[in-house]
Structure formats: structure tokens, C-alpha cells
Amino acid sequence: EADIYQTPRYLVIGTGKKITLECSQTMGHDKMYWYQQDPGMELHLIHYSYGVNSTEKGDLSSESTVSRIRTEHFPLTLESARPSHTSQYLCASSTQGDTEAFFGQGTRLTVV
Amino acid sequence: KNQVEQSPQSLIILEGKNCTLQCNYTVSPFSNLRWYKQDTGRGPVSLTIMTFSENTKSNGRYTATLDADTKQSSLHITASQLSDSASYICVVTGAGTYKYIFGTGTRLKVLA
Questions:
Q1: pLDDT higher than threshold 80 for residue B97
Q2: E strands within A14-103?
Q3: How far is CA B63 from the centre of its chain?
Q4: Residues in chain A where the model's pLDDT stays below 70
Q5: Which of A4, A42, A45, A93 to mutate against chain B (most B CBs within 10 Å)?
Q6: Which phi and psi angles does A47 have, rounded to 5°?
């Protein structure tokens, strides 16, 4: 069982609201990732971090932002949610050796 | 063009039967290949991980094979169970990169 947690699991909010999706891991992993996945589609990397104070944008352009102030936390923020942000967001972490990536359960976001 | 292609897209089998899922990739240079199982609405869970020097790896009823020369991998599921119904995702990591390249997955449905 992976020790990586995402909250909330489900979120329905109105357009224009600011939201933060939480991701925490207790494995001491340096690398953390955020992926976006639409139903039946592959995962797309939107943000990643190599460690504290390190954040980079991924392959898929996203209006969200992330921060990495502590090793164990990697929150994702949308300043003004839109219906186009409706998707599943998956957080993952891995060791520097990159032999294993552990995923959280995901947050299913619906913007109405 | 996706660098990791999976087939079939979807598959329906009867409980107790075996099945084989395919993954072809063009990622080069290659570091490792993972198979993940993703239940609907959940995060992916790792089944196996193989480096270029490994040809086969088993995890219970799941057996993965890798041919690094032809850039092909397969996941064989033996004596399928209803709980095997999920998406199975092939993920390839290039050497010297942080990036996981995800396939689109094979959606497996096991019927009683």
C-alpha cells in the first residue's frame, strides 16, 4: 500500500472559484508529479518537482500552479476554475533512483 | 504520435480464462518499463517493473515479458478473476529523463 494521499477525492465547484488539491506522501520521496487524466484517456504530466523549492511544468499546458515548500506536500492550485478544468487529477511520487512511482487515489474535479 | 502503443484497446473475457495484453514502444534510449493496473476512478497501482536486461517478471497471476530489441512487452494474466476488470497501462521511462511515457491502456472486463 502506497503512502501517498490526495484530498479531496471528489470536488464539485462553481466557475470562478479558487481551489487547491492536496497531495501528501510519507515516503520521503524527492520527486513528485501531477497528472491530468480524462475518462478513458492516458495520463498527461502537468507539473513535476525534483525536491523542495523545485517546480517545473510538464508536457500538457495547464493553468494550474504548484508549490513544494516541504518534501511531503505538493499542492496544486487553480486560481479561477472553469468547466474545461473538469478532469481527474493524479499525484505521484518516486525516489531519485526512479525505480517505482506511487500514485495517489486521485481527485475527480467537476467545475459547473 | 504516442511513443507507447497498447493493444487491444479493450478486451472482454470470461472468468478463469487467460489473456495477454501488448505494449509496443519507440522510446529510446530506454530505461525501464512498468505495467500498472488502474481501477475506474482510482490511481494506478504498479504490477511490475523491468529494466532492459530483464526478459520476464511475475507478480502472482501477472507475468510481464520484455523484448528490448523489438521494443515490445506483454502482460499475461492467468486464471482471470472478476477483480481483474480494470485498465492496464504500460509506462516507459527513457534513460536519463524524469518522464514517464504512458500508453492509452487496455480496458479489461472479466465476466462471470
A1: no
A2: 19-25, 31-37, 44-49, 56-57, 65-66, 76-78, 87-94, 101-103
A3: 10
A4: 1-2, 97-99
A5: A42
A6: -150, 155
